[in-house]
Amino acid sequence: MTKPPLTLYLAAPRGFCAGVDRAIKIVEMALQKWGAPVYVRHEIVHNKFVVDGLRAKGAVFVEELDECPDDRPVIFSAHGVPKSVPAAAAAREMIYVDATCPLVSKVHIEAQRHAEAGLQMIMIGHKGHPETVGTMGQLPEGEVLLVETVDDVAGVQVRDPDKLAFVTQTTLSVDDTRDIVAALQDRFPAIVGPHKEDICYATTNRQEAVKTVAPRSDALLVVGAPNSSNSRRLVEVASKAGCTYAQLVQRATDIDWRALEGISSIAITAGASAPEVLVNEVIDAFRDRFDVTVETVETAAENVEFKVPRILRVPA
After folding, report:
1. Do 298 and 15 contact (CB within 8 A), yes or no?
2. Mean pLDDT, rounded, for 10-17
3. CA dist., res. 17 & res. 202, Å (int)
4. Which member of 67, 131, 236, 298 is catalytic?
5. Quick check: bond before 37 cis, omega within 30?
């Protein structure tokens, strides 16, 4: 039986960013240096396939530091942690390695700098997301106010409207964030913003690639985890860019084939914590059912690389 033709637009850049690459490498190098088990507070990155792979090598994932023994190394996830966490690890004389993405650390430093200048912080982010918790936890309770939407801006209660600054989570929708920033600046004209955009290069680049492929595709799939903020934003960006069917899938087994009946084109991308092996798995699933022509659509080239912490570069 002849397979129906399908044009598959492969968005680029997609998948792993430099911060995720570095975080995974940190766990692997820690296992090489100290042997198993190595403890990791929170998922190192938001991807079950990656986490399961590291668990198989000897990483033990926990939610809180008090679940870790004193005599084994612990790694803090790429999303960052409140200041209280490394302080507690130091008090227990634990070996710890901070895998916080350097672009998240930049936001932490910014928040600290603004606080030292006497400014109260407003953070644009998602409540309960580990990165938001980590950034807000850089300053004493009450010093960072969270807004999630344009509507939240009207209700935020500040100490002094003339002494404010804002930071953002690094994985937000560029367009949605722009609207929230505009609302903040409208209500608080003196508010100070970051020197450079807080939303990271990888989030921005992946969203731009989606905006390019979404309008020309009958459907778009984002390979990523349901708890991955940047992956979920890609689905939203695709829908807003005119793609009538945009879905998040963790693996090829999650694809809803009935919803894709009759399509002649599809776009595929992946969140910043999704490995390329899962993208290939999805492409292979389409090849099984369609006569696929793959067209890569590249909107930016990435060559960012981050060094691992010094503790892993020196012998045990």
Report:
1. no
2. 97
3. 6
4. 131
5. yes
Kindly indicate the confidence band of residue 197, based on its pLDDT and cuts at 50, 70 and 90.
confident
Residue where the block lists tokens 């680029």: 12
- Which residues, at least 6 apart from 221, have a Cβ–Cβ distance to it below 8 Å? 246, 247, 248, 249, 255, 266, 267, 268, 269, 282
CA-nearest of 174, 192, 241 to 214 is 241
- Yes or no: say if 110 and 132 are a contact pair by the CB < 8 Å rule: no
Tell me the C-alpha distance between 184 and 256, whole Å: 40
Whether 131 is a known active-site residue: answer yes
Q: What is the dihedral of CA 89, 93, 97, 98, to 10 degrees?
A: 30
pLDDT at 1 over 80: no
- Strands laid side by side in the 164-168 sheet: 144-147, 120-124, 164-168
The rounded Cα 33 to chain-centroid distance in angstroms is 27
User: How many angstroms separate the CA atoms of 31 and 39, rounded?
Assistant: 10
Give the model's pLDDT for residue 264. 97
3-state secondary structure of 70: coil
Q: H-type helices in the chain, by residue range?
A: 18-34, 48-57, 84-91, 102-116, 130-136, 150-155, 174-187, 201-213, 229-240, 276-289, 310-313
pLDDT of residue 283: 98
Enter the tokens of residue 240.
Answer: 């807003």
pLDDT digits (tens, 9 = 90+) for 81-94: 999 999 999 999 99
